[in-house]
Design a protein that fits this description.
Blueprint (H helix, E strand, L loop, with lengths): L2 H25 L6 E9 L4 H20 L5 E9 L4 H15 L3 E3 L4 H14 L3 E3 L15 E3 L8 H10 L4 E7 L2 H5 L1 H10 L3 E8 L5 H12 L5 E5 L2 H13 L8 E4 L1 H4 L7 H6 L4 E5 L9 H14 L12 H20 L6 E2 L15 E2 L2 H10 L1 E4 L2 E4 L10 E7 L2 E9 L3 E3 L1 E3 L4 E3 L33 E5 L9 E4 L6 E4 L1 H12 L6 E5 L12 H9 L5 E7 L2 H4 L2 E3 L8 E9 L14 H24 L11 H9 L12 H29 L4 E3 L4 H7 L3 E4 L4 H8 L6 E4 L2 H10 L8 E5 H10 L4 E8 L4 E6 L3 H14 L2 H17 L1
Parallel strand pairs: 1-2, 1-3, 3-4, 4-5, 6-7, 6-8, 8-9, 9-10, 20-23, 20-24, 28-29, 28-30
Antiparallel strand pairs: 10-15, 11-12, 13-14, 15-16, 16-17, 18-19, 21-22, 24-32, 25-32, 26-27, 26-30, 26-31
Helix pairs in contact: 2-12, 2-13, 3-4, 5-7, 8-9, 13-14, 15-25, 18-19, 18-20
Length: about 800
């Protein structure tokens, strides 16, 4: 009877062991490893979603074939977000509630990740996305969010460097009007502005836009002057944009299309028709170094899984996209972290429900979520996409690649790093760029849209037959610019130095520009006048594409227009009458030499005479043997200047005389020059030399009507009643010659180029004093950020840097002198 209880106890032990084994088997999924539940949320209807799912499945198979003895194994639960934020969040809640997932891979869109990352923060479940690139997703706002891809802001400097290297100065942004599309804009615009690139227009394409809406927007872009477009869109919308752009003729010569890495990273899996439409596009993408893991067998195995999920689609024969590689490496990173954290006991904790609690509050909190997050971000390894490093909770990228879509595929153009900028080659050992950087010649050649190898200049005058509108106005000095109307054709006829410089600059441009002159009248009517400021302002109002003439570069004008480099010298000076001062001093003949010079000359003169007398007397000169007499005194005084040096018998005396004669000739020349200057030049002197003294005296000042000089004089302190404007040089001459007592002026204040012409015509009685004020000179005015400015500036520098400007000045200025 005692053995019965022992038997029963043994049977109960066997039953308990069996049940425990069953439970353990069920818990381990029948494979001997603890299941680590992971949710996957993708848009399975999109190309990115399909590629990612195949990569995730292959990654799970490969990882556990390499690590068969691991105690944990990822159990993947896939959900389709269908491109909806609501559906994605619903799937995340369902995965957490029903499967107690310890991590979620995805979601695919940044807008979905924004919501789900908050769910991850509440439940302490790491959210790892390899496609959510929005810069707004940060550790501060989403502490459990990990970005296994590039932050969109990482690429903006590479795009700006690329644009600067090719010399483009304006770009148009084309983007999805979504969180993804808008997220990059502040960072991209800042980078472009830092490299002096202007963004005249931003084209946001709504998700609800129809094909007709998109085509209308493309026609709007085609009507603009800018020909460089940066596209930041999803693959679905970008495919439609490029296909329609090709139909609209915007994939032809002269256009530039740049794609961001969101599209460039998946260029390998786009349809052949889309890639054909994108021919000539350049883009920025993540650089994937060569690896033995990415061999043909890998692509074959990946394609088998891809076709298992997408049986009606053809396999990818080239390579999978970078996004697919990131999805693969993300699974490996998560599997390694799961093994380190392990599966033990109850891994979830429910909060006690309270009043006003929401459904999120009822979700269980992952106990090991923080530990799992730490293992994920601290894990670094060499994956198939390169170095997979998620420190700082996002993928650390050191190199970006510049590509060119051509011939149904893409080819390498260059590399970019934040340290070295752009270059053609990369040192694979150090992952550092070799050679100089940040200039276009360092990159491989590019085939641009329209099969062109010539670098597009980035802008065009779009409308067929449209001409460059050149604003001109007559100057008081026709040598600079003169305008008139043809009585037959009513066309504007122009001539002058400014016109010749402008036309010479256009002829030197590497492209042809048709233009027409349009006259601006600064004369006004009897009650008002229109100034040069008004003329320049017409450029800002877009009535002219460029304004040429004798336009001075002024600070207030640079606020609304840009200027070329000046083509004349600068400065403002005064024209004043010359006063004739006759010197009535009777002793003026003594002033050419100083008192010291007179005294020294007399002493040396006497010394020379005495020396000669003594030498001759000691040598027995018969004329000097008598006692000292008046005759001998005459010889002493006048022998240095007499012509009787042949009476000197001693050679030494003749030497002394020659020295004196040399000094005497020098003194005579200096005296003659100084005395002549005192009698002529010093008799003509400016009436005034100080503009501030004129202001204190209340002098009247003349200037050109409509000139900025009126404001300059008022700033100095002149009262408006003392300032008199005039239209022509003849009026200025008449006013200055009459003087203020006869209703004229005491002085003229003009710009230096005008003064030179004025004095050439009225050379008697006036002189220039100054300059009293610095100015930048005459230049041409163009709209702000005009791409034409740099080209014309370069050619003006070419003209003023050689004999062309000398020849033109002789034609218009010296010709006028000879005709007088």
């Amino acid at each position: 009877m005692e053995k019965i209880p022992q038997t029963i106890l043994f049977l109960l032990l066997l039953v308990f062991t069996f049940v425990a084994a069953e439970n353990s088997t069920a818990h381990r999924g029948g494979g001997g490893a603890d299941e680590f539940h992971v949710g996957v949320i993708l848009d399975l209807g999109s190309l990115v979603g399909k590629v990612s799912l195949a990569s995730i499945s292959l990654a799970v198979e490969d990882f556990y074939s390499v690590h068969p003895n691991y105690s944990t194994k990822l159990a993947i639960h896939v959900r389709d977000s269908m491109g909806s934020e609501v559906q994605a969040v619903s799937a995340a809640i369902e995965l957490r509630e029903n499967y107690k997932v310890q991590a979620i891979i995805g979601p695919q869109k940044s807008s979905e990740a924004t919501f789900i990352s908050k769910l991850g923060s509440v439940t302490q479940v790491p959210i790892v996305s390899f496609t959510a690139t929005s810069p707004s997703l940060t550790y501060d706002s989403s502490p459990y969010f990990v970005r296994a891809t590039l932050n969109d802001s990482v690429q903006v400097n590479s795009i700006a460097s690329l644009i600067k290297a090719y010399g483009w100065r304006e770009v148009v942004l084309v983007y999805d009007d979504t969180d993804y599309g808008r997220g990059i804009l502040p960072h991209l615009i800042d980078a472009l502005q830092h490299s002096d690139t202007y963004v005249p227009y931003r084209s946001g394409i709504s998700l609800s836009a129809t094909s007709e809406d998109i085509m209308q927007e493309l026609y709007k872009l085609m009507a603009m002057q800018t020909r460089v477009f940066i596209v930041h869109m999803s693959s679905t919308r970008a495919s439609l944009i490029f296909t329609m752009a090709k139909d609209a003729g915007m994939m032809s010569k002269g256009f530039v299309w740049i794609i961001t890495n969101g599209l460039a990273n998946i260029i390998d899996v786009l349809s052949p028709s889309v890639i054909e439409a994108m021919n000539g596009v350049i883009g920025v993408r993540f650089h994937v170094p060569k690896s033995q893991k990415l061999d043909t067998s890998f692509l074959i195995r990946w394609n088998k899984i891809y076709q298992r999920y997408n049986p009606i689609q053809l396999p990818l024969n080239k390579s999978i996209s970078i996004v697919g590689l990131w999805a693969y490496d993300t699974v490996w990173a998560l599997a390694q972290a799961a093994e380190k954290v392990g599966v033990s006991g109850n891994r979830n904790k429910r909060l006690q429900p309270h009043k006003n609690s929401t459904c999120l509050d009822s979700l269980a909190i992952s106990i090991n979520g923080a530990e799992l997050l730490t293992e994920i971000v601290q894990n670094k390894f060499r994956g198939i996409s390169g170095n997979f490093d998620l420190t700082e909770r996002q993928l650390q990228v050191s190199v970006l690649q510049i590509i060119n879509v051509v011939g149904g595929t893409w080819r390498h153009v260059g590399f970019w790093t934040s340290k070295n900028g752009l270059s053609r080659y990369l040192n694979q050992n150090e992952l550092e760029i070799t050679g100089s950087s940040a200039s276009m010649p360092d990159l491989n050649s590019v085939t641009w849209p329209g099969e062109s190898t010539e670098i597009p200049r980035g802008w065009e005058f779009p409308a067929s037959g449209k001409k460059l509108r050149v604003g001109v106005t007559s100057s008081a000095y026709p040598e600079f610019i003169s305008t008139s109307k043809d009585p037959v054709t009513n066309a504007t006829k122009v001539s002058g130095l400014s016109i010749d410089i402008f036309e010479n600059a256009l002829k030197r441009l590497p492209f042809a520009l048709s233009y027409e002159y349009q006259a601006f009248d600064t004369a006004g009517d009897s009650t008002s006048s229109r100034s040069y400021n008004d003329f320049v302002y017409q450029v800002y109002l877009q009535r002219y594409d460029i304004a040429i003439g004798d336009i001075t570069i002024r600070y207030n004008r640079t606020l609304y227009v840009d200027f070329t480099v000046p083509y004349t010298e600068s400065g403002v000076a005064m024209v004043v009458p010359l006063n004739e001062k006759r010197n009535k001093d009777r002793w003026i003949f003594l002033k050419p030499l100083s008192k010291g010079m007179w005294f020294g000359s007399i002493i040396f003169f006497i010394y020379t005479g005495v020396a000669i007398w003594l030498i001759e007397r000691l040598n027995g000169n018969g004329h000097l043997q008598d006692l000292f007499s008046a005759k001998q005194l005459g010889i002493i005084m006048f022998s240095p200047i007499s012509e009787g040096r042949d009476k000197l018998e001693c050679f030494l005396a003749q030497i002394v005389l020659l020295v004196w004669m040399f000094i005497f000739l020098v003194l005579t020349s200096s005296y003659t020059a100084n005395f002549a200057s005192m009698l002529t030049v010093q008799q003509l002197s400016p009436a005034v030399t100080d503009i501030h003294e004129l202001q204190k005296q209340g002098a009247y000042v003349g200037f050109h009507r409509g000139s900025y000089i009126e404001g300059l004089l008022e700033d100095i302190g002149f009262h408006g009643s003392k300032l008199k404007p005039f239209d022509t040089p003849d009026e200025l001459h008449s006013a200055l010659s009459n003087g203020s007592k006869k209703g004229g002026v005491d002085v003229l204040v003009l710009e230096v180029p005008y003064i030179k012409l004025f004095l050439e015509k009225y050379c008697n009685g006036y002189t220039m004093v100054g300059p009293i004020y610095k100015s930048a000179g005459f230049a041409f005015a163009l709209p702000k950020q005009s791409p034409l400015r740099a080209d014309i500036t370069r050619e003006i520098l070419n003209i003023t840097g050689n004999d062309t400007i000398i020849r033109l000045e002789k034609k218009w200025i010296e010709k006028k002198q000879l005709s007088k």
